[in-house]
Structures are given as structure tokens and as C-alpha cells.
Amino acid sequence: MKLTNSSWFQPPALLLTGIPGLEAVQIWISIPLCVMYLIAILGNCTILFIIKTTSSLHEPQYIFLSMLAATDVGLSLSTMPTVLNVFLLNHREIEFHSCLTQMFFIHTFSSMESAILLAMAFDRFAAIHNPLHYAVILAPPRITGMGLAAVMRGVLLMVPLPILLKRLPFCKGVIPSHCYCYHPDIMKLACGSVRVNIIYGLSLVLCSFGIDSVFIVISYILILRTVLGIVSEHGQVKALNTCASHIFTVIIFYVPLIVLALIHRFGTFSSPLLHVTMANLFLFLTPVLNPLVYSLKTKQIRSAINKIFSFRGNLFK
């Protein structure tokens, strides 16, 4: 069917969505959202501060953790303006180019996080499989290169997304299903053919999240094989315990991401509430839980936090 100028336009602005059916209580929903943003930003900034100021934490494992924390801060700051605008101020409108900019940063930081999780899996494999050469394998120049590669891959892969969307005509009266701009969601608002966008989006997912997840699984298969070769049961438990925080982070990052992708691909008849729930889980789970998990599970970070608070407590006595 041929589109006419009256049926499509390049929107000056879009109307974002809160939680369908709960518009009357969105102001109350904003309270836990504000708390979660506070935990995500302060928690990850605390991790960054502790790693930077504690010389004993200037090791590959903690440098990668600082990269993860910085990425989580970036992801939180990318979504915070629109999420709080929708829930706290009931201001749903976002300018179209601002929406594309937000979408670019959300997907870029997500891709970076996936790459850093892969780097952390390699770090755990190197530490367990070859502990004597661990510092040589993950020397500072190599760590820096891995971090830069994560950033460059994220930026280069995501730059075409807003460009491909900007060329499309958009239908009037259609609104996104999230409180932030997410590529599959915005793409569905278009009236024209989105075949190129779908093909590129699928290629992007396979080339970033798909490859990363496969290599993370391979890393843990190799880790498990190495651990099973350790003679003592205590040594096996100790080796696996060093991976616990990372495994948890991988699960809370990839599971909501996969479910959200499946909903957008196949969930035409699924509940709007499911869309919103999985979208918010994808946004909040890793930035909020990562600093809590690593603070509780990592003895060195927990000790550094205790030292800082005990030192400040002594100052105020």
C-alpha cells in the first residue's frame, strides 16, 4: 500500500510510555525508581573511587570491575532523564533527535557491558588456568587495549542505528511502549519498510551480544575443566568462588536482554505490562545489583569499604 503524506511524517517529538493501567500511581512508582538510580550511581561511583584509591586493587580483575562500574553509570545516566520525567513529572514528550541520541547511548553502553563481561570471563580463566603467568597475560597495555576495543566496537556498531531510523517515515498516532528509546521499539513506529533495519539489528546482535555470550560460555567450560583437574576439594571450591559474582552478573545481564529481544521479535500478543517489566529489568538489574554483589562477595572491596568508613568515623569522633 502506498503511503501518503497525510499518513506519515518525521515526528518532531514522541510520547513515551509509563506502565499501562497504572498512570494514576506513577508518582509513587517513581520513589523506588529514584532509590534504584541512587543505588546504581552512588554504588558504582563508590566502586570506582575505592579501586582508584586502593593500590592493592590495581589488578586486572578490579580494573575490569571498574570498567563495568563506569559502564553501568553511563547506562543509568542515559535513561534517567526520560524515566524520571515520565514517572516523577508525568512529562512523556521527547524530541525525536533526543530520542535517537538516547537510543544510541543505551545500545552503546549495553554493547560495552557485554564486551567487558567477556573480558572478565577471560580474566577468570587466565587467573585459574595459569595463575603464575596471570599478571603477564593481562599486562596493563593489554587491559587498556581490551577496554578501548569494547568502547570502539560499541560506538562503531551503534552509529548506523539512528542514521537508519532517521531515513524512515513514521506513522501518526503511534507511541513507543517504553519509558526510554529502544531501537526495536522505535523501529516499529515506522510506516515504511524496515527490512534494512531488521537485518542490521539482527547482525548487530549476533556480532556483539551473540559472540560475547558464546565466548563467555566457552570460557566457563574451560574454567570448569581446569577446576575439575584440581586435586583438593577446597581448591576447587575456592577457584569457583572467585567466579560467583561474575556468573551472577552475566545471568542478570543476559536473561532480561534475551527475553526483551524475544518479546519484541515474537511478542505481538503479549501483555504491555510484560514489555515494560522486562524493559525496566534490563535497565535496572545490572547497574543496581553489580555494586551490591561485588561489595558483598569480594573480600578485598568489602575490606576497603570498611577501612574508608572506619577512617571517616574516626575523623568525626
Helical amount among residues, as a percent range? over 70%
Side by side, the strands of the main sheet go 1-4
Distance between the termini: 76 Å
> What coarse outline follows from CA principal-axis ratios?
globular
Give the beta-strand count. 4
Rg for CA atoms: 22 Å
Tally of helical runs: 12
The low-confidence parts are: none
Indicate the topology.
Layout: E1 8-9, E2 13-15, H1 26-53, H2 60-88, E3 93-95, H3 96-129, H4 134-137, H5 140-158, H6 160-166, E4 170-171, H7 183-187, H8 195-228, H9 233-241, H10 244-266, H11 272-297, H12 299-315
Helix pairs in contact: 1-2, 1-11, 2-3, 2-11, 3-5, 3-6, 3-8, 3-10, 8-9, 10-11, 11-12
What does the model show?
The protein is mainly alpha-helical and 317 residues long. The chain has helices at residues 26-53, 60-88, 96-129, 134-137, 140-158, 160-166, 183-187, 195-228, 233-241, 244-266, 272-297, 299-315, and strands at 8-9, 13-15, 93-95, 170-171. A two-stranded antiparallel ribbon has the order 1-4. A two-stranded antiparallel ribbon has the order 2-3. The longest helix is centred in the middle third of the chain and has 34 residues, at 96-129. The N and C termini lie far apart (76 Å).
